[in-house]
Write a structure and sequence with these properties.
By secondary structure, the chain is an alpha/beta fold. 32% of the residues lie in helices and 16% in strands. It is built from 16 helices and 14 strands. Helix 6 runs parallel beside helix 9.
C-alpha cells in the first residue's frame, strides 16, 4: 500500500480521538480565537492534514469507517442503530492478532463491550444505549421518521456558562490514560497502542466560568451563511431543518453557542495536554507517535444549521494531526485524505504484513505523503441516517466538490474561491459537463440509487427486528449508554 516508501520502525502510539470537532476550530488550522495550544504542539512537532474528511457525518458510521477502513456503503453500517459489532476486521484486530497491546479508554460508540471489537482491553468504554442505539433513526428507512424534538433546544438552552457530565467523564478518561501509561508505558518488547477517546467536544456546550470567560461574547464571530437569504437553499437541507425542528438563529444565540463550543474545545485540548505531559514526564515522547482526529464536525450555526447530518465542510471536514518517530516536523499535507486511510496507515506503521483483505480496502496509507509522494486522491463521504430523506454522497476532486443527492438536484462548490459553500454552481449551464464528469467518477465508487435502497432496506429490517414501528416509536431518543456517573440526560447522539 505504500509503494516504494521505506517505513520507519514500529513505535508506541497514543491515538487521541474526540467527538464533534470542526476542522477550522484549532489554532494550527488558522483560527485566531480558539485556544488549542496542546493540539497545536502536535502539529508543530509533526504533520497537519489540511484536507481530511470523515466518511460520514454521524458518530457511529464515522467511527465504524475508522475501525474497518470501509465506507458505509461497503460495511452497511449506516447510522446510530446499525453499528460496528466486531464482526468486520478492524485495524485493532490486525494489530492484536500480531501480539500488540491495543487498549482503548473512553468513548467508542460501538454495539457493546461484550463484542470482540479488536481491542485487547476496553477501559471505561462508552457504547450505544442498551446495545440498540438510536432506533428511532430506523424509521427513516420506511419514510416515517419523526421530528427530532429536543436536539435544537440542547444547543439553545445549554450553550454557555455551566457544565456537563461529559466533562467529568473526559477527566476520568485522562486520569485512566495517565495511570495506564505509568503502569505500562515503559514495558519492553512489542510496542503498544493506547486509544484515548473523549466525548467532548459533543454538545451540550456548557462550560465552567474559567473557560467561558476566555471567549467574550462581543468577540465571537458569526458563522457564515447563518441567515436566510445569505445561504443556498436545497431540498435536502430544508428537510434536515424540518426534521431537527429548526428555529431561526439570532446573533446573540450564535455568539453564546460559539463561546460555549470554543470553551469546550479548549477543555478537550487541556485533557490532551495532560496526557502529553505524562508522556514527557515518563520519558516516552521520543519513542511514541501521536495521532489526533475526531469523528465528524459541527455546523454550530453555519448555513443556519446546528449539529452535523449533512455533507457541508462544517460537518465532514475533520482535523488530522500526526507526530513522532518517522514523521517530519512542521509539515502540512494538502492531499485529500480520509478516515478510511487510517486502517492501512496504522497496519503498515506497526510492521504487520498486509493481507489480501487489507489490500482490497479503499483507503491509502498516509506514509508516502510524508515523503512528498503526492498521489491522485479524491475525497468521498456519504450520509444515510437521521434527518435525511434520501442518501447523499460527496465527491471532491481538487478544489471542486460535488454533493449528489438521490432524487434531488446535485450541488457543486469551488472550495478555493468559496470555502463556505455559499455559491452553488451546479445549475449553471457552463458547469453541466463538470457536474456530469464528477457524477461519473462517483459512480465508479458506488451506485448512489442502489446504495440508498440498500440502506433503507437494512433500516426497515432492523426496525422489524426490534419489534416494528410502534416499538421503535416507544423508545427514548437516546443513543449513548452512559457509563457510571454520567446522567442519562447528557447521553445525546
Amino acid at each position: 500500500m505504500s509503494g516504494s516508501f521505506n517505513l520507519p520502525a514500529p513505535s508506541n502510539l497514543v491515538y487521541f480521538q474526540s467527538d464533534n470537532h470542526n476542522r477550522n476550530l484549532l489554532g494550527c488550522y488558522g483560527h485566531s480565537i480558539v485556544q488549542t495550544p496542546h493540539l497545536d504542539r502536535i502539529a508543530k512537532r509533526g504533520a497537519r492534514f489540511s484536507n481530511a474528511y470523515a466518511a460520514s457525518a454521524l458518530c457511529c458510521p464515522a467511527r465504524a469507517s475508522i475501525a474497518t477502513g470501509q465506507y458505509p456503503h461497503q460495511s452497511h453500517l449506516w447510522d446510530n442503530a446499525i453499528v460496528y459489532d466486531g464482526s468486520l476486521p478492524s485495524w485493532m484486530h490486525r494489530l492484536a492478532e500480531e501480539g500488540w497491546d491495543v487498549v482503548s479508554i473512553g468513548k467508542l460508540h460501538y454495539r457493546a463491550a461484550e463484542d470482540n471489537n479488536g481491542f485487547t482491553d476496553e477501559i471505561i468504554p462508552m457504547h450505544i444505549l442498551n446495545k440498540k442505539g438510536g432506533v428511532d433513526f430506523l424509521l427513516r428507512g420506511a419514510g416515517e421518521e419523526q421530528v427530532h424534538v429536543g436536539q435544537w433546544e440542547l444547543y439553545l438552552d445549554r450553550s454557555g456558562l455551566g457544565t456537563s457530565h461529559y466533562q467529568d467523564f473526559d477527566r476520568k478518561i485522562t486520569s485512566k490514560a495517565i495511570h495506564w501509561l505509568k503502569e505500562n508505558g515503559k514495558r519492553t518488547g512489542r510496542p503498544w497502542v493506547l486509544h484515548v477517546s473523549y466525548p467532548s467536544s459533543h454538545p451540550p456546550f456548557s462550560v465552567p466560568e474559567r473557560l467561558f470567560e476566555r471567549y467574550p461574547l462581543e468577540e465571537m464571530p458569526l458563522p457564515p451563511a447563518f441567515a436566510p437569504g445569505d445561504r443556498p437553499e436545497h431540498p435536502a437541507i430544508q428537510h434536515l431543518r424540518k426534521m431537527m425542528d429548526t428555529k431561526e438563529l439570532m446573533p446573540d444565540d450564535l455568539k453564546r453557542i460559539a463561546a460555549g463550543y470554543y470553551g469546550l474545545i479548549t477543555h478537550l485540548d487541556e485533557q490532551v495536554g495532560e496526557v502529553i505531559a505524562a508522556l514527557d514526564t515518563l520519558g516516552l515522547t521520543e519513542d511514541t507517535r501521536i495521532l489526533y482526529t475526531t469523528d465528524h464536525g459541527e455546523m454550530h450555526g453555519s448555513h443556519g444549521l446546528l449539529g452535523k447530518a449533512n455533507l457541508y465542510e462544517g460537518a465532514i471536514a475533520v482535523p488530522l494531526l500526526m507526530a513522532g518517530p518517522g514523521i517530519p516536523e512542521g509539515i502540512v499535507v494538502d492531499d485529500i485524505t480520509s478516515h478510511v486511510d487510517l486502517f492501512p496507515t496504522l497496519v503498515e506503521s506497526s510492521g504487520v504484513a498486509t493481507n489480501a483483505t487489507d489490500k482490497s480496502l479503499p483507503g491509502k496509507s498516509l506514509w508516502p505523503l510524508f515523503n512528498g509522494e503526492a498521489e491522485s486522491r479524491v475525497g468521498f463521504a456519504e450520509y444515510h441516517a437521521a434527518m435525511s430523506l434520501n442518501g447523499s454522497f460527496m465527491l471532491r476532486e481538487g478544489d471542486l466538490k460535488l454533493i449528489y443527492h438521490v432524487d434531488m438536484p446535485p450541488q457543486l462548490f469551488d472550495l478555493a474561491h468559496d470555502p463556505d459553500e455559499i455559491e452553488d454552481l451546479a445549475g449553471r449551464a457552463e458547469m453541466a459537463e463538470t457536474v456530469a464528469r464528477l457524477q461519473g467518477q462517483l459512480r465508479l465508487i458506488c451506485n448512489p440509487e442502489e446504495v440508498d435502497q440498500q440502506a433503507k432496506a437494512d433500516q426497515v429490517a432492523k426496525m422489524e427486528y426490534w419489534g416494528g414501528k410502534e416499538a421503535v416509536l416507544a423508545e427514548k431518543g437516546l443513543v449513548i449508554s452512559p457509563p457510571p456517573g454520567i446522567d442519562v440526560k447528557d447521553a445525546w447522539r
